[in-house]
Amino acid sequence: MKSQSFVNSLIHEKSPYLIQHSRNPVNWFPWCDEAFQQAKTANKPVFLSIGYSTCHWCHVMENESFEDTDVARLMNDSFICVKVDREERPDIDSIYMKASQMMSGATGWPLTIIMTPDKKPFFTATYIPKTSRFGRIGMLDLIPRIKKQWEDNASQMIEYSDKVTQILAKPKHVNQGDMLQANIIDKTISNLSNTYDKQFGGFGDAPKFPSSHILSFLLQSHYYRKQPELLSMVEFTLQQMRFGGMYDQIGYGFHRYSTDKKWLLPHFEKMLYDQAMLSYTYLEAFQVTGNPLYSQVSEEIFTYVLRDLTSPEGAFYSAEDADSEGEEGKYYVWSTNHLKEILTDKEFNLLSDIYPIDNQGNFCDEASGKSMGSNILYIKTILTESQKKLIAPINKKLFKARLQRKPPFKDTKILTDWNALMIASFAKGASVLHSKTYQEVAMKAMDFICRRMQNDEYQLMHRYKDGDIAIKGKLDDYAFMIHALLELYDNTYDTKYLETALGLTEFSLNHFWDNEHHGFFFTSNNDEKLIVRPKEAYDGAIPSGNGVFTRNLIKLSKITGNMAYEKKAEEIFLAFSGMINRVSQAFTQMMMAYQFAENESVEIVICGKRNDSQIKEITGKLKYKYCPDKTVILKDDIFAHKLSKLAPYTKDQQMIDEKVSVYICKGQTCEMPLTDMNDIMSILFGNSIATI
Fold first, then answer.
1. What pairs with residue 82 in β-bridges?
2. Phi, psi for 609 (deg, rounded to 5)
3. Cβ–Cβ contacts within 10 Å for residue 668, how many?
4. In Å, what is the CA distance from 508 to each residue of 3, 43, 178, 267, 431?
5. What is the pLDDT of residues 53-110, one digit of tens each?
């Protein structure tokens, strides 16, 4: 039985996900001291439910159980119930996801944890149906069983939860002094190649995730090894994803993942971080190959983000839901009859030539495989220029018709880490595509984060929503922000971005660094104390903070000449070496940092006046060219003084005879400065230095 007449404590929250549950009959609390104190006073376990606003199965569980008064009555009687938005509190999610994986092997969302009033878990699951079916226990059976076990054997359950917590708290990576295997990059490439799908692209079987950090690693590896098969793996995967149903052919942007191995049937939610990382990787592919398809995809993603995910302040929203009007994918799919109503016969026939249309529908139910009667649009083959021109007005017509539908829910909270990923991609787009517009977008968003979500001591906050700033920044916020700031410095050569990157780096080393075992904790030493202090290095849906930070440290050491940063990077490699040596393919971001450190880097300092045409020509070509190990510094008439303080070794690097002067160091060896433009262009962009 369902009712909409309830209000619980979540009504005062800002998280769209928590607000969604604020009128459930379940007496939800946000994560707060009051909830756990009530659990202790009432001697009740805590029912913790973790999810996010655009999660399809979170909606299903809410509709089935949390809106049901019978289930709610049992939950309120047996537990103190706590709701957490995993995007607001990735630290809490990280701990209890590890617990779930360890205790039951279940991972994903909604994540269900039942734990002691001391926050120690003794039961974990993901989605739980209302009633038991197909061997899966339902809420109506599970809750009374747990209540009775707690009443009869609370001491045993507490003892078990203590053991679980002890295992969670035990460091998994104490390998200081162990080196990474000499062939670790080859091993990583081999392991990825073994899981590569030669027929459809991507890695592994269904479901398939875009995993852009894997593709970026393979691009970097191709750069160093000149192995054509690595580039082929990347290109084929990028093309298959773009042409498949996982890409929104009409409105642009990527859906979260493909439920099948062909990239046809997507899980329809759209996440900001996927748009950010995929647009970045497509830009890299464009740099490497010059294929305009890849720059086009990046620009299409940017179009989607600017149109649908950009706030009035210039920052970026988090996500769009998979569901609309209670149905997954309804906003994006098309019945044959509807298409014929919108299009002329000629347009429909042309559409069918490009997007395979099935009268019965190719959109099938994920569980049963039964057709839902609608079509997901995907492309058969690479389009000719003629086909592109013919389909463009039809796409616009369909887009206009789609706007008449009820759109999916938009999660409008602003997260520092995901915004930083998007800023980095816009900054790279500004460099590679020579776009002033993308530069302005990146600068405006960065200005918002620095002005609103960072204090004078370089402490970041994690979430902004409707003027409310909350939750102390986590490692990913700092790592991704530094990465974005370095991308903006590469694009603008404005030292304020470099200065902020260094300030955030020092704050992180002071507050996140593990002085005993090295590497960075996920939470700072002045953050809320949880049952364990999480620390990760493997990549998930987004690359790990430790992996990104390692690469940041190496780049900062090259820019500033401060070798202490490189030493810290080495300590991170050593800290996680045991885990990396076992399953290096799960650490591709760390492997990218390792390749950067292992290979001879190129540092380029350009001295001259900022508006000099020769300066613009040199820097423009350097930005366009794919060269992952280069570091470019512009010492110009505007920022020379500040730069000399941030990178002291540049103090004595000056213009020679009032000419543009270029200083090049490769590895640990520096060449004589160049002043002749022909020599500069030949060495930087010819074949004299192979790595430039």
1. 29, 48
2. -90, 135
3. 8
4. 47, 39, 24, 36, 28
5. 999 899 999 999 999 999 999 999 999 999 999 999 999 999 999 999 999 988 899 9
Q: What one-character-per-residue DSSP string does 83-135 give?
A: EEETTT-HHHHHHHHHHHHHHTS--SSSEEEEE-TTS-EEEEES---SS-BTT
Q: How many CB atoms lie within 10 A of CB 669?
A: 8
Q: Tell me the one-letter amino acid at 368.
A: S
* Residue whose token pair is 């002071």: 510
Residue pair 333/340 in contact (Cβ under 8 Å)? The answer is no
- Tell me the C-alpha distance between 385 and 387, whole Å: 5
DSSP-derived 3-state class of residue 340: helix
Task: Name the 3-class secondary structure at 536.
Answer: coil
C-alpha 503/C-alpha 489 separation (Å) is 14
The DSSP-derived string for 484-500 is HHHHHHHHH--HHHHHH
Question: What is the arithmetic mean of pLDDT over 327-332?
Answer: 94
Q: What is the identity of the amino acid at 479?
A: A
Rounded CA-CA distance 680/632 in Å is 14
pLDDT in tens, 527-581: 999 999 999 999 999 999 999 999 999 999 999 999 999 999 999 999 999 999 9
Alpha carbon 689 to its chain's center: 34
How is residue 385 written in tokens?
A: 């220029």
What six digits make up the tokens of 264? 């046809």
b/e code 163-178 from CB counts within 10 Å (16+ = b) = ebbeebeeeebebeeb
Q: Are 455 and 404 in contact (CB under 8 A)?
A: no
Whether the predicted model's global pTM rises above the 0.85 cut: yes
Question: Domains (ranges, CATH) in the chain?
Answer: 9-169 (3.40.30.10), 184-323+411-598 (1.50.10.10), 332-404 (no CATH), 602-685 (3.40.30)
User: At a CB cut-off of 8 Å and minimum separation 6, what does 468 contact?
Assistant: 14
Query: Is the CA virtual torsion 323, 328, 329, 335 positive or negative?
Result: negative
CA distance 260 to 245: 10
3-state helix, strand and coil shares in percent for the chain, rounded to the nearest 5: 50, 15, 35
Please classify residue 321 by burial: count the beta carbons closer than 10 Å to its beta carbon, then call 0-12 exposed, 13-18 middle and 19+ buried.
buried
- In 182-270, alpha helices (H): 184-195, 212-225, 228-243
